[in-house]
C-alpha cells in the first residue's frame, strides 16, 4: 500500500557507489587514498581524534564519528517506535520468537568467529579476538531488499526479518557503547548527555503538552512544533554528542539519548515507509528531514571505510565471513526453532521452520554496520583491513539467500 523503495534504493546505490569507488582508488593509488581519508580539517580542535594531549578533526572522524550519528539516530528511531507504540513490532508475544532468534543471530556468529580463531589460527588469536562483534551485525536496508527478492513483499518472513534486524541493531548499539569505548572512559560526562535529554524533553515536549491540557487547539505544542521545530533537539543532540565524546563512548551514538525525547505519533507505518513523511509528529518529521542527508553521508562512509587493498585479505576476513554466513543462519535457526516449539512461542502464520534458515542467510549481510564495527574494533592496519574485507564479502550472502530460497522452495507472496 505504501511505497518503501526510494530510501532503500537510494541508500543502497550511494553506499555501494562509495564503497566501489574506495576499493578502486585504494587499489590504484593507496597513498593518495589514505591521505584523503586522514585529511586534517582542524588541528587542536575541540572535537576529533585525541592524541598527544590535543584533538585533531580529520575527514574520517567527521564522517565516522560526527555525521554517522544521524544514521544511528534513524536506526534508533525505528527501535524506539517498535518498543513504545501500542502496536509496536517489538512488543508482546508477536515479537518473542524474532527476539529469541536475534539472540541466536548474535551468539552463533560470536561462537564461530572466536571458535575458528582459537582452533584454526591460534597464533593470531590475540590479534583478531577483539573483532568478535563484527559478524553480529545485520544491515537492515540491504537485508530488507534481499528479503523482498527472496520471499516477496507480502511474506510473513519479511516482517520477521525486519523485527530481527531492528532488534539486532538495538543490541549492536549496546555492544558498541559497552565493549568498544573510543578512549579512556570518563562516565561522569554522560551526565551532560542525560541533562541535555531531560532538559529538552521537559521544555519542548512535556511543558507544552501540560500547558495545552484540556485545549483541543494545542496552541503551545503547535507553536513549538511549527516555530522551533527540531532545532532545540539538534542543540541538545550536539551537547549529548559532546558528552559521549568526552565520556570515551563512541560519539556516533551521541544522539541516542535525544531520540526518545521527540514528540511522536501513536502509530508508525514501518521502517523505510514513504507514508511516514505524512505523519505530522516531530519524530517522523525529523526522520524525513534526515533521510536524504543520511544517504549522502552513507556515500562518504562507504568512500572513507571500504578502501581496502585486495592483498589485505587474511585470517580476519575469513573469520568475519564465516561468522556471518555460517554463524547467522545456524544461530537463527536453532534459537528460532527452540522459541517456536519447545518454548511454544510459535511462528507467524504462513511461515515454515525452514524459512528460518533462509532468514539467517539474508541476515548474514553485515556490510554497513559490520564495516563500522571493524573500524572501531581494530586500529588502522592490516587486521582492520582484513576484517573490512570480510564485511564487504558478506554481500555474497545475497546470492546464498537466493539459492537457499530456491532449494527450500520458498513460495513468494507479493500481496
Explained architecture:
There is one protein chain. The chain has 415 residues and is mostly helical. 64% of the residues lie in helices and 3% in strands. It contains 16 helices and three strands. The chain has helices at 5-28, 30-37, 59-84, 96-120, 125-128, 140-151, 156-179, 190-211, 219-228, 231-247, 282-305, 315-340, 355-363, 367-377, 382-393, 396-407; strands at 40-45, 49-51, 54-58. A three-stranded antiparallel β-sheet has the order 1-3-2. Helix 3 (59-84) runs antiparallel to helix 11 and helix 4 (96-120) packs antiparallel against helix 12 (315-340). 50% of the residues are buried. Mean pLDDT is 88; it is low at 1-5.
Draw up the topology in text:
Blueprint: H1 5-28, H2 30-37, E1 40-45, E2 49-51, E3 54-58, H3 59-84, H4 96-120, H5 125-128, H6 140-151, H7 156-179, H8 190-211, H9 219-228, H10 231-247, H11 282-305, H12 315-340, H13 355-363, H14 367-377, H15 382-393, H16 396-407
Antiparallel strand pairs: 1-3, 2-3
Helix pairs in contact: 1-2, 1-6, 1-11, 3-7, 3-11, 4-7, 4-12, 6-7, 6-16, 7-13, 8-9, 8-10, 12-13, 12-15, 13-16, 14-15
Report the total helices: 16
Mean pLDDT: 88
* Neighbour order of strands in the largest sheet: 1-3-2
- Rg over CA atoms: 21 Å
Give the helix/strand class: mainly alpha
How far apart, in Å, are the first and last alpha carbons? 10 Å
Quick structural overview:
With 415 residues, the chain is mainly alpha-helical. The chain has helices at 5-28, 30-37, 59-84, 96-120, 125-128, 140-151, 156-179, 190-211, 219-228, 231-247, 282-305, 315-340, 355-363, 367-377, 382-393, 396-407; strands at 40-45, 49-51, 54-58. A three-stranded antiparallel sheet has the order 1-3-2.
Amino acid at each position: 500500500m505504501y511505497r518503501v523503495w526510494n530510501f532503500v534504493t537510494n541508500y543502497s546505490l550511494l553506499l555501494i557507489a562509495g564503497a566501489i569507488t574506495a576499493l578502486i582508488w585504494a587499489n590504484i593509488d593507496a597513498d593518495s587514498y589514505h591521505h584523503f581519508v586522514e585529511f586534517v580539517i582542524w588541528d587542536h580542535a575541540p572535537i576529533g581524534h585525541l592524541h598527544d594531549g590535543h584533538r585533531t578533526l580529520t575527514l574520517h572522524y567527521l564522517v565516522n564519528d560526527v555525521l554517522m550519528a544521524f544514521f544511528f539516530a534513524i536506526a534508533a528511531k525505528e527501535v524506539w517506535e517498535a518498543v513504545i507504540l501500542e502496536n509496536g513490532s517489538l512488543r508482546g508475544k508477536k515479537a518473542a520468537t524474532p527476539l529469541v532468534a536475534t539472540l541466536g543471530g548474535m551468539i552463533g556468529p560470536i561462537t564461530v568467529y572466536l571458535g575458528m580463531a582459537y582452533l584454526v589460527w591460534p597464533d593470531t588469536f590475540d590479534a583478531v579476538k577483539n573483532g568478535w562483534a563484527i559478524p553480529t551485525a545485520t544491515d537492515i536496508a540491504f537485508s530488507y531488499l534481499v528479503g523482498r527478492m527472496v520471499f516477496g513483499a507480502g511474506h510473513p518472513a519479511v516482517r520477521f526479518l525486519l523485527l530481527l534486524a531492528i532488534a539486532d541493531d538495538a543490541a549492536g548499539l549496546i555492544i558498541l557503547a559497552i565493549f568498544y569505548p573510543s578512549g579512556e572512559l570518563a562516565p561522569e560526562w554522560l551526565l551532560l548527555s542525560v541533562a541535555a535529554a531531560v532538559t529538552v524533553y521537559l521544555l519542548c515536549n512535556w511543558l507544552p503538552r501540560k500547558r495545552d491540557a484540556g485545549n483541543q487547539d494545542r496552541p503551545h505544542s503547535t507553536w513549538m512544533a511549527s516555530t522551533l521545530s527540531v532545532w532545540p533537539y539538534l542543540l541538545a543532540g550536539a551537547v549529548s554528542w559532546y558528552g559521549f565524546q568526552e565520556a570515551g563512548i563512541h560519539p556516533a551514538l551521541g544522539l541516542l539519548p535525544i531520540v526518545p525525547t521527540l514528540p511522536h505519533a501513536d502509530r508508525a507505518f514501518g521502517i523505510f515507509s514513504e507514508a511516514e513523511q505524512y505523519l505530522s509528529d516531530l519524530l517522523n518529521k525529523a526522520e524525513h528531514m534526515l533521510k536524504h542527508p543520511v544517504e549522502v553521508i552513507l556515500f562518504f562512509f562507504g568512500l572513507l571505510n571500504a578502501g581496502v587493498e585486495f592483498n589485505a585479505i587474511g585470517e580476519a576476513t575469513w573469520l568475519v565471513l564465516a561468522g556471518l554466513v555460517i554463524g547467522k543462519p545456524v544461530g537463527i535457526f536453532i534459537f528460532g526453532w527452540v522459541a517456536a516449539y519447545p518454548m511454544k512461542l510459535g511462528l507467524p502464520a504462513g511461515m515454515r521452520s525452514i524459512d528460518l534458515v533462509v532468514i539467517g542467510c539474508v541476515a548474514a549481510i553485515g556490510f554497513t554496520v559490520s564495516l563500522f564495527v571493524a573500524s572501531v574494533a581494530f586500529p588502522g592496519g592490516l587486521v582492520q583491513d582484513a576484517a573490512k574485507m570480510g564485511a564487504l564479502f558478506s554481500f555474497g550472502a545475497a546470492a546464498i539467500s537466493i539459492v537457499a530460497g530456491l532449494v527450500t522452495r520458498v513460495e513468494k507472496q507479493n500481496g
